[in-house]
Amino acid sequence: MAESGVNPTAAALLGLLHEGPMTGGQLMAAAERRLAPYWSMTRSQVYRELPVLAERGLVRMGKPGPRSSQPYAITAAGKRTFSRWLAEDPGRDTIRNPVALRFAFGALHSGNQLRNLQASANEYHSEALARVREQVKNAKKEGDAFDASALEFAVAYHKAALSWLKSAPVGG
Questions:
Q1: What backbone torsions phi and psi does residue 70 show, to the nearest 5 degrees?
Q2: pLDDT tens digit string along 47-99?
Q3: Pick from 157, 171, 40, 39: which is nearest to 118 by CA?
Q4: Distances 125 to 28, 77, 159 between C-alpha atoms, Å
C-alpha cells in the first residue's frame, strides 16, 4: 500500500466523492461514466472498499435511502488522504490484454479461432474508440481539459490496439 494508505480503487472512490455524496450504485455509474475508458473497477471492489473507507474515517455514511441504499460522503480526512495519494508516485502500468494473451498461444489455435478472435477484438475496439471520442468531445465542450486529457489516453489505446490487430498473424 502506498504512503497515503489507500489503493487506487479506494482513491478513485474518494476522487469521485468530491462530486458529492453517492451510494455504491451511484459510484459505480460515475466510475463507468468517467473512468471506464482507462480504469476498470468492479462492483465487488467498490462494495468491498466503502466499508473500509468508512471504518478509517475517510468517508461517512449518510441516512439510508430506498431499498437500503447507503449514501457515502467524503470527510476532511478523506480529502487529505486523497491529496496525499495524488502526490505519490503512481507506479508502473499493469498491462493485461486477454486478446494479446490468446495470440501469444496462437500456434495452439486454429486459423478460424484466430480470425474470429481478431474480428471480435476489431469490433470491440472500433466501437470503444467511437464512444471514447464522443466522451472527449463532450469533456472539451464542458471545458474539462483534465477529463479530456485522460480520455485521450483511451483514444490512443484503442487506436494502438486496432493497428496491432491489423498486423496480428491469423493464418491463411
A1: -110, 110
A2: 999 999 999 999 999 887 777 688 999 999 999 999 999 999 998 888 889 99
A3: 171
A4: 22, 40, 8
User: How far is 78 from 58, CA to CA, in rounded Å?
Assistant: 4
Cβ-count burial 118-140 (b if 16+ within 10 Å, e if not): beebbeebeebbeebbebbeebe
The residue whose grid cell reads 435511502 is: 65
Q: How many CB atoms lie within 10 A of CB 115?
A: 14
Name the grid cell of 136: 472527449
Is 81:13 a contact under the CB 8 Å cutoff? Answer: no
Task: Give the DSSP H/E element, type plus range, for residue 59.
Answer: strand 59-61
Q: What is the pTM of this model?
A: 0.82
Angle between helices 111-141 and 145-167 (to 10 degrees): 160
Cell of 134: 464522443
C-alpha torsion sign, points 89, 90, 91, 92: negative
Comparing 67 with 17, which gets the higher pLDDT? Answer: 17
DSSP H or E stretch at residue 73: strand 72-74
